[in-house]
Design goal:
There is one protein chain. It contains ten helices and eight strands. With 229 residues, it is an alpha/beta fold. An eight-stranded parallel barrel has the order 1-2-3-4-5-6-7-8, surrounded by six helices. It binds cytidine-5'-monophosphate. Residues 7, 9, 33, 59, 110, 113-114, 150, 171-172, 183, 201-205 line the site of cytidine-5'-monophosphate.
Length: 229
C-alpha cells in the first residue's frame, strides 16, 4: 500500500464512497474532514465504513478546553479512528485529555497549518519562525501523549531530528504541474517522504481528477506510486 492518506474532501457521500473503492487497491488510509463530517456526521462515516474496509483518519482538528475535547473524543471513539486530529496549539492539558479518551487510536497533533506563509504567521503576532513554533508545539504534544504529528513537508526533516517518538504526516503535497490552490508551502510526495514523512496527505491532486469515471484518478495514483518507487 502507498504511504498516502487520501483526503475525502467532498459533501457527497456516494462520491466519497466511490473515491475509496476506486483507490482501495493502492491506498488504505482515508481522511474524513470537516466538509464531510459536519454534513454527514457520525452516521455518514458509519456508512462509508459499511461500504468498505479502510483505516480512518478523522480530521476534526479539535481545539477547546480539555474537558470539552475529552467529551468530543469519547463521542467519536466509537468510529474507531486510527488517527484523530487535535490542534497542537491547544496545549498539553488538552492533548493529554484527548489521548486518555482514545486509548486505541492515535491522537494526532496538527502543528502550523501548511497554508500559512512565514509572513502571515508573523503578522498574527507570532515572534518565532514557523519551524521553531512547529518544533516547540510538536515536542510539547508528544510529551502530552500525541502519537502522530502533522506538519508541512518543509518542517519534517528538522522535526524528525529532534528524535520525537511519533508518526510524521505531511499534507501540502502536490505533484509537478498541479495547481497550488490555497496551499503555500508544497512539496512532491517523493520529496516529502525523502524529507522524513511516514505518510503524505493528498486531496485535490488525486480527487480533482475524478470526472464521473475513475480513469484519470487511477492514472494519477499510478503516477504517484511510480514516483515513490
Ligand atoms: O487538497 P489538498 O491536498 O490540499 O488537501 C490537503 C488536506 O490536508 C485537506 O483536507 C486539509 O484539511 C488537510 N490539512 C492541511 N494542512 C494541515 C493539516 C491538514 O492541508 N496542516
Amino acid at each position: 500500500m502507498l504511504p498516502v492518506i487520501l483526503a475525502l474532501d467532498t459533501k457527497d457521500l456516494d462520491l466519497a464512497s466511490k473515491w475509496i473503492k476506486s483507490s482501495a487497491d493502492q491506498i488504505d488510509h482515508f481522511k474524513v474532514g470537516l466538509e464531510f463530517y459536519l454534513l454527514h456526521g457520525f452516521e455518514g462515516i458509519k456508512k462509508l465504513q459499511q461500504a468498505a474496509d479502510f483505516k480512518l483518519f478523522l480530521d476534526l482538528k479539535l481545539y477547546d478546553i480539555p474537558n470539552t475535547v475529552k467529551g468530543a473524543v469519547e463521542s467519536v471513539s466509537v468510529l474507531n479512528p486510527k488517527f484523530l486530529t487535535v490542534h497542537a496549539s491547544g496545549g498539553p492539558k488538552m492533548i493529554q485529555s484527548a489521548s486518555k479518551a482514545l486509548p486505541n487510536g492515535l491522537i494526532t497533533a496538527v502543528t502550523v497549518l501548511t497554508s500559512f506563509s512565514e509572513d502571515e504567521f508573523s503578522k498574527l503576532g507570532n515572534s518565532q519562525s514557523i519551524q521553531q513554533t512547529t518544533n516547540n508545539w510538536a515536542s510539547s504534544a508528544v510529551d502530552a501523549g500525541a502519537k502522530a504529528l502533522v506538519c508541512s513537508p518543509f518542517e519534517v526533516s528538522q522535526l524528525r531530528s529532534l528524535g520525537l517518538k511519533s508518526i510524521f504526516i505531511t499534507p501540502g503535497v502536490r505533484v509537478e504541474g498541479d495547481e497550488l490552490s490555497d496551499q503555500v508551502r508544497v512539496m512532491t510526495p517523493k520529496n516529502a517522504i525523502s524529507a522524513g514523512a511516514d505518510f503524505v496527505v493528498i486531496g485535490r491532486s488525486i480527487t480533482g481528477q475524478w470526472d464521473g469515471s475513475d480513469l484519470k484518478m487511477r492514472k494519477k495514483i499510478e503516477l504517484i506510486s511510480n514516483s515513490l518507487d
